[in-house]
What we know:
This protein is mainly alpha-helical. It is 66% helix and 0% strand. Helix 3 (51-65) packs across helix 4 and helix 4 packs across helix 8. The protein is elongated and about 60 Å long. This is RNA polymerase sigma factor. Residues 29-95 form the RNA polymerase sigma-70 region domain.
Amino acid sequence: MSNPPTPSATDQQLVAQVLGGDTAAFGQLMQRTQGLVTQMVSKMIRHPADRPDVGQDVYVKVFKNLVGFKFQAKFSTWVGQITYNTCLMYLEKKQLVLVDPAEPEPDSAVEEGRRAPPPLVAGTDYDPETALFGQNLADILSTAIEQLPPLYRTLIALYHQQELSYEEIAQITSLPGGTVKNYLFRARKLLKQHLLATYQRDDL
């Protein structure tokens, strides 16, 4: 009988236990990656009713392909790749667009010198009035993010909420690093336009 997985076990140890027949170890791997998978699925799949099936499909694929995973990348990054590709298949099946096809292809060379995007919302080390404004801004941003194309929503979530690097996001999405930077810049530009439009309406 195999030993139960421990919270301190590494991903590699848990994978070995799963391959040895320990299903409890797979449950622990799911717990470690559930936040990433749930957030990616919620950003790429607009219809809430479809998200559980897509999420389940992700972990079915993870389990089936676990024997071929050789830790060339972090386990969470590999799961992210499977999640992204599973969501892509869903979008293609539903004939939904990942990003506006009217937009020109990003110029990676132009983006190489662009600085990293600042945080979407500033910290909360303010007086109560400023903190309240920050909360209102966060609510407005959340609404605005949901209006973006699926790819933009996903990139913002991976970079600003999951705090992944450009390289990790590029691995997950199979996009060049310069393209990731470019799309993030465009997403933030659209969010800024939404915020300005919202405040202008409020001032009328």
